[in-house]
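Shift notes (night). Ran Sirohydrochlorin chelatase while the centrifuge was going.
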Amino acid sequence: MIDLVAVAHGTADPGGIRVVHELVRMMARQRPGVPLSLGFVDVDVPALPSLVRRVVADSNQAVVVPLLLSSGYHVYVDVAAEVDRHPGRVHAAPALGPDPVLAGILADRLGDLSRIDHVVLAAAGSSDPRALQDCSTTAKLLSTRIDRPVDVAYITGTANPLTTVLSRAPARTAIATYLLAPGFFNSLLHRRAPGHHISPPLGADPRLAALALRRYDEVQVLAHAAGR
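Came back to this:
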């Protein structure tokens, strides 16, 4: 069994850290036979490079599963660097999103839709166009799920700024928070969108844990095939 290394962004918010650890505990409960560890690309420890080095030394192979909602710098640089550093021994799974599972959780977090005609999907923001495309795909999946228009806005960055998107949004608009956990971006979102209905972050959800394990399974199958 190949080790699973879950990697999250990291946050100084204690509530955010609790959510990430609970999500990983859910993964462990759903798959007790999988060796599982958690590392971070920023803020928290263990840092991803040192964790991967330790795991590979102990068990030879690992699949890194980003607990990230879209693919940007941390996937294409930080995670990819570990694959390059340990060729044939470390394998990378894609980010969690886009995926219909995330659209389902987002819809649930929005709650009662009877008073909502329009939704703004609020994401952290990225300078990587591939991450922006991932968010656009998620918006389309959510729109299909809730049968309402969904626009994408970013809490930081120059692309589709949240305040600009909200300024032209119609009445009865709600904000779907496309963040994993409380932290800097969630606090900034609430400061920049006063008076709006804002859903909570995705949080530690069993469906999210199952999605992360599916990402692991898909890569593990390919890794075993390549090793034959």
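The mean pLDDT is 95. The chain has two domains: 3-96+205-227, 100-198.
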